[in-house]
Amino acid sequence: MVVAIVAWTASALWIAAVAYIVLAALGPARLSLRLACYLVLLISVTTCLQLLAGLLGLLRPLPIGVASAFGLLVIWAWPATRKVLQGAGGEAKSLWTAGTAAWASFPAWLRLLSFLLVPFLLLRFAFLIWALPPFVWDSLTYHLPNVAAWTQAGRIFAVESPVSRMLSPANFEVFATWFTTFLHHDVVVEAAGVPAYALGVISVYALGRGIGLAPWSSWLAALGYATTPALLLAATGTKNDPIMAALFLFILAMGWDKASATVDARPHARQGGGVLILLAAGLGFGTKAYMLQMLVGGLAILLLARRDAGAPLSLGSAWKNAVQGWQASSSGRRTLCMAVVATALVLGGFWYARNWVLTGNPLYPYGVQVGDSTLVTSSDDSARVTWRDFATNMGSLVDRLGDKRQRISPDLPETTGWGWVAYGLGMPALVWGLVRSKHQRILFVGFAIALVLIVQASPTAVWLTRFLTWVPALLCLSLAEAVQVLGPASRPVRWCFAGLLAAASALNVGMTLNYNLLSPDDFKIMLSRPALEREASALPVTVPAEYGMALGLLPGDAVLGYNVYGNGFTYPLYRANYSQRLAYVPIPPGSSCVDIAEAMEARGTRYLFVAPVHTEDWILSLLNKCASEQDVLRERVRGLYVDKRG
Amino acid sequence: MSTNAARRLEAWLVLAGMLAAIAWYARPQLAYSLSALRFIMDWVLNSVVG
């Protein structure tokens, strides 16, 4: 344990140092944007180093710790990088000074609301991460099984699984391994969503400042967005949608800064911003392919903001700027730029290249259909660019607007999860903003383009609101501008705005404390166990009891065969400390009991786990029949079958 | 109407819009949000009382 903690600390320091060196060279001047850039760099550097370690088969505390310590020694010994690192203290101090000055300029009611809300949100994160194991559907189906398999094996590889989405782009999962590799345990894996959440909130603040809002109203927008239920639930639900939303908002904040008249006039600073935008886009594209649609919306905002600032729109001038910036740079800076661009390309392209090699389809498991022609073939779902699918998806989104159909829970069934602040306060403010504010109109156009393109290409209409967690940011920015412009006109109105924001924020956060789903008994069950024994299989919210019963009986050193269908849970089977070895046992239609036993033997196991809802019904019936015949298989406990011949 | 009076009217209109939007969103989300808050209160009370 001591080695693990020391290695984890060394890795954290190494990542923090590398990210700061890049920030010092390429980061923008404005402090809120610098903070957002630093977070993007921390996430990117962590993802890249974990990916490298995983591909080399070194995803273990000792190799990572030793390499990190060595890296720290090298950058400390080299005078140029040491000088940069010595400046970090001064930068932190100026950030603190600017932060406290901004805080002092906030209205008293906003300071009070922040004083109550921020510590409460931090406590919520800490408590839920510590108290509960992962339990959200997609996390147990395909996000975390990758994390578990890679942490267990100490390397990153294509895991054999009946769940085809295990081969989806997996930058978030690689990032999450940083939270599991050192302890070899999932006790803090839900913390992997917190940096994305912080990035999203800071990016809204930076974007607010970019569009000309005061520090206090930018903070109001950020605070409102921070209470969005869909974002809060997904952030501690080990889902990858918060990082996508955060990267989109970061790209908008950076893009607006580049496009506006107040842009940093130093040519090399402009270039640095472009490189960091590319890094964010690469990180996002290697997380979910819908970054592409987001980028189109982002580009529209950038062009409109540029036109609004009176800057030239031509590609020629953009190219001339880039060349000027390149020529004004030192060779060291150029090397750094190229390294960051290379990192962006690796993070953005690795999973697609791997899938192309493994399956012949870079977008596996998805295909692409445009009209009647199939561009990319897939046996699974396809993004279908047809009017009919667009109408279906848009209809599905419209049905979910207003969250009328169900309570908001982590998987967002039948809801958008945008919450009280966005709908109650943000929607009317947006209507006002579209009439009164040019900047709000520009943002609206870009957001609308991104939304329409994502809705168009979503393979499943039912779950598409998960990809729209960034929409409430626009509504919160509209709210902030409305409060800033209209608040001073009337004191009662100002106090009403403040009161409504406080009430809406409280209702938003209140519903996320138990994920709007868990009962007091669920918490009691988990809290009655030591933190390291809070197994995903023991939390009965989404996981059937069969998982816990089977793991309770299985000898610790046995390989567990399992059969689930393409959307079934495998993560709980790994156990919280990733000690359980697993083998997928395929059971094709027409199999006999002997065939199943032989398939188990071929996979090196005597045990076969199946569960209702997660295994095909006909397989459950067949196994029932096999167990009642008692020739080759016996049901040891509900859901766990043993090969009698062994 | 003076600029100030027009701005005040605009502010009141936006506020009225917000109240209407909250009322629209409150059904049925208020019950869900309050049930979550009730859960917290029950839990805290149970923990305190035993």
Layout of helices and strands:
The complex is a heterodimer of chains A (646) and B (50).
Chain A: H1 2-26, H2 31-55, H3 61-77, H4 79-86, H5 88-105, H6 108-131, H7 137-153, H8 171-177, H9 194-210, H10 215-226, H11 229-235, H12 241-259, H13 267-285, H14 291-308, H15 315-328, H16 331-359, E1 367-370, E2 373-376, E3 382-385, H17 387-400, H18 419-436, H19 438-457, H20 471-486, H21 491-512, H22 520-527, H23 545-553, E4 560-562, E5 582-584, H24 593-602, E6 607-609, H25 617-629, E7 633-637, E8 640-643
Helix pairs in contact in A: 1-2, 1-3, 2-8, 2-9, 2-12, 2-13, 6-21, 7-8, 9-10, 9-12, 10-20, 12-13, 12-14, 13-15, 13-16, 14-19, 17-19, 18-19, 18-20, 18-21, 19-20
Chain B: H1 3-49
From the structure above, extract its key features.
heterodimer; A: 646 residues; mainly alpha; 2 domains; five-stranded mixed beta sheet; globular; B: 50 residues; 1 helix
Description:
- The complex is a heterodimer of chains A (646) and B (50).
- Chain A has 646 residues and is mainly alpha-helical.
- Chain A has two domains: 2-91 and 168-512, no CATH class; 527-643, no CATH class.
- Helices cover 63% and strands 5% of the residues of chain A.
- The longest helix of chain A has 29 residues, at 331-359.
- By secondary structure, chain B is an all-alpha fold.
- Helices cover 94% and strands 0% of the residues of chain B.
- Chain B has one helix and no strands.
- The relative contact order of chain B is 0.07.
- The model of chain B has no long low-confidence stretch (mean pLDDT 84).
- Classes of the chains: A mainly alpha (646), B mainly alpha (50).
- The A-B interface holds A 402-404, 407-408, 420, 423-425, 427-429, 431-432, 482, 486-487, 489-490, 493, 496-497, 500, 504, 507-508, 510-514, 516, 519-520, 523 and B 4, 7-8, 10-12, 14-15, 17-22, 24-25, 27-30, 32-33, 35-37, 39-40, 42-43, 46.
